[in-house]
Amino acid sequence: MGSNGALTFDVEKNPNAVPATEREALLQNPGFGKVFTDHMVTIRYSENTGWHGWKIEPRRPLALDPATLVFHYALEIFEGMKAYRLPDGGATLFRPDANARRFRNSAERLGMAQMPEDLFVESCRALVRFDRDWIPSSEGASLYLRPFMIGSEVALGMKPSSEFIFCAIASPVASYFKGGASALTLWASENFTRAAPGGTGAAKCGGNYAASLAAQAEGLREGCDQVVFLDAVERRWVEELGGMNIFFVFDDGSLQTPPLTGTILPGITRDSLITLGRDMGLTVREEPYGMDQWQKDAESGRLREAFACGTAAVVAPIGKVKGRQHSFTIGDGNAGLIAGRLKAALTDIQFGRAPDQHSWLDRLF
Hints:
alpha+beta; D-amino Acid Aminotransferase, Chain A, domain 1; D-amino Acid Aminotransferase, Chain A, domain 2; 2 domains; 9-stranded mixed beta sheet; 18 strands; globular; transferase; aminotransferase
């Protein structure tokens, strides 16, 4: 800590930083998760010392012993968040306090050290400010941040780790899905579930995503873009996609999304869209929705739209659903009006084009 209580990072500049001309070329078409900035933040934790060693340093490989606990017992959590370029050339984070709370909750669920929320937020701020030239200015592009923490104690015993490494890296990104706004085709998984009551479904940990990949591969083989999971008990209720929450839009203009019962990730984009929907005068319900009812409502026309949402994809319309027992089209199979309105409202706030009435933006410079 500095004398005024603010965090003070030891800084090591990257001697091999990407030249400005090459960086600008990369920012023209960064894709998603393929290009990275020059630096990263690292902070360490031990039971005896607490949080210490705040550093901004060159992005490079982590040196870990083969017996490090993360390799054997999946002691890992992460977050996904973005920094946005503003019209006046400044930059902002979107609801970093919400990411900090979820990160802390994920750590608690996995028996990991809980990082103070102000330390998490200041680490993300510091990285973006230091690598500010990597924030894209092109339409719809942003700087994606990936803060994560691993159990770094060297031991093979089945036990909570006494040491941790927190790291934050950044990647300039464009659209998550190739093709932009085209509607997704979902595979309704029957053989796999994402999470069960009492499990880690509400935590943002790597194991949840690893467990979804076999179902995702199955869906890709069936010509689908993403997989949608049902609950683990009755195999009846729609829960979420492999990495996104889901909404349904009905003929009366109301929205519905599955409730947070511990098996669904509490998405920050999900929460923001609930608020924005209500701002628009729409009725938004957090209630269970059955897979069979989804098909029935789509076929009758009662269901007009469905869309997925998350930090990476923002809002992604859903056009078709396929499965062993289900096959149906939603509306005309294309992006819907409500999804488009909500996406525009959210991104206009994030990019500083609309008033921030909920104080969601954390301006950096």
